[in-house]
Amino acid sequence: MSTTERTRLDQPRAPRRSLMPEYDPEAFGRVSEKIARFLGTGRFIVWMTVVIVLWLLWNTFGPAALRFDEYPFIFLTLMLSLQASYAAPLILLAQNRQDDRDRVNLEQDRKQNERSIADTEYLTREIAALRMGLGEVATRDWIRSEFQDLLKELEGRTAAGERSAER
Predict the structure, then answer these.
(1) Alpha-carbon distances of 107 from 57, 99, 100, rounded to whole Å
(2) Sequence spans of domains, the chain
(3) Could you please report the per-residue DSSP string of 121-165?
(4) Is 44 exposed, middle or buried, given 0-12, 13-18 or 19+ CB atoms closer than 10 A?
């Protein structure tokens, strides 16, 4: 065993080759969502109805040599069953992807609500602290009333001093 072939334990192994085909699950999911969205529209129902009606008309009234699905329309039944067998898993896959997105959005909303509640609680505490602080701060009206009281007291003392000076 040479040094270049030796396995290093401090590095991950190279991925093994697989016989299964590789695909991008995200791309497959996006395509399946597009198909599922189309299957859930009125346009799909109209087109499906048109195709079935044309199928039935052609195989009922068309030239006998060109009819490809005679009356009990077994090929049509097979085609509709095949379409349904692919549509159901695609719709379920699209729903699962939507559930995952909804779960992520719900988690983000929950975190945002927690932050909003924390901010609101903080602001509530700050407002309460300001109110308590304002209780200790002299307001304009309080200072005005104190000045008026002092002015009355000075006027009273001045009047009392003038009376005592007159005597």
Answers:
(1) 53, 12, 11
(2) 25-161
(3) HHHHHHHHHHHHHHHHSPPHHHHHHHHHHHHHHHHHHHHHHHHHH
(4) middle
**pTM: predicted TM-score of the whole model, two decimal places:** 0.54
Q: Which two tokens stand for residue 145?
A: 């009333």
pLDDT in tens, the chain (167 residues): 555 566 778 888 877 788 888 878 888 888 888 998 898 889 999 999 999 999 999 999 999 999 999 889 999 999 999 999 999 998 898 899 999 999 999 999 999 999 999 999 999 999 999 888 777 777 788 889 989 999 999 988 888 877 777 76
Q: What is the DSSP string of 30-88?
A: HHHHHHHHHHTSHHHHHHHHHHHHHHHHHHHHS-GGG--S-TT-HHHHHHHHHHHHHHH
